[in-house]
Amino acid sequence: MSPTEAPPLRAADQGGLFALGPEATALLRLLDDTFAGWGVQAGAAPLTMPALLPAADLARLDYFDNFPHQAILASPLDLDRRAEHPFDPATGSFPRQALEPGALALPSAACYAVYLDHAGTEVADGTLVTVVGRCFRKETEYHDLRRVLGFHMREVIALGSREHAEAHLAAFTERITAFAEALDLPLGKEVATDPFYDRGGTRLLLQQLSPVKWEFLYDGLAIASVNVHRNFFGERCGITVAGTGEAAFTSCAAFGLERWLSALTRRHGSWEAATAAVEQAARQAGRAV
Question: Which pTM value belongs to this model?
Answer without folding.
Answer: 0.89
